[in-house]
Amino acid sequence: TNNLQAANQYGFTVNKSSEETIVDFIDEIEITKSTKQHALVISLDIKGRQVALNTPQGPATLPQHRGCPQGSCTGPAFWNLVANEVLTQSWPEGVHLQADDFIFLIKAPTKAKVKSLANEALN
């Protein structure tokens, strides 16, 4: 493997599916519940607009134009490269991303810390 994709990249990825995303996400929620932490889910559905996220390494801008063209051989690969830039950033501890669209699962011992991490992740 060329290791170009983040482990938490599920879209257009060989041997991964949307069902696997859901299973992994539920597993993370179960861990959060069993450790008596608080959690917040933020879902960014990227369709027909530009999404910009501030990351610890600087702004990450993701232009997205109505998905990948039907029948495109390279469209999915290009999207995965763009998504990988966001997925592989250094995120604060407690912030987990899964994607092809982005789902943030933010967990912490207190509601105040969850709010702080959410603001940090989205700013």
Give me a quick take on this structure.
With 123 residues, this protein is of the alpha+beta class. It has helices at residues 18-34, 75-87, 111-122, and strands at 38-44, 50-55, 58-63, 95-99, 102-108.
Q: pLDDT under 50 segments (min length 5)?
A: none
Helical proportion?
25-40%
Distance between the termini: 33 Å
The tally of structural domains comes to 1
Largest sheet data: 3 strands, antiparallel
Oligomeric status: single chain
Number of strands: 5
Shape: flat
Mean model confidence by pLDDT: 72
Strand content: 25-35%
Q: H/E series, N to C? A: HEEEHEEH
Q: State the strand order across the main sheet.
A: 1-5-4
Number of helices: 3
Find the structural class using helix and strand composition: alpha+beta
* Computed Rg: 15 Å
Protein name: Reverse transcriptase domain-containing protein
Give a description of the structure.
It is a single chain. This protein has 123 residues and is α+β, with helices and mostly antiparallel strands. It has one domain. It contains three helices and five strands. The strands form two sheets. It has a three-stranded antiparallel beta sheet with strand order 1-5-4, with helices on both faces. A two-stranded antiparallel sheet has the order 2-3. A hairpin with a 2-residue loop joins strand 2 and strand 3. The radius of gyration is 15 Å and the shape is flat. The N and C termini lie far apart (33 Å). The model has no long low-confidence stretch (mean pLDDT 72).
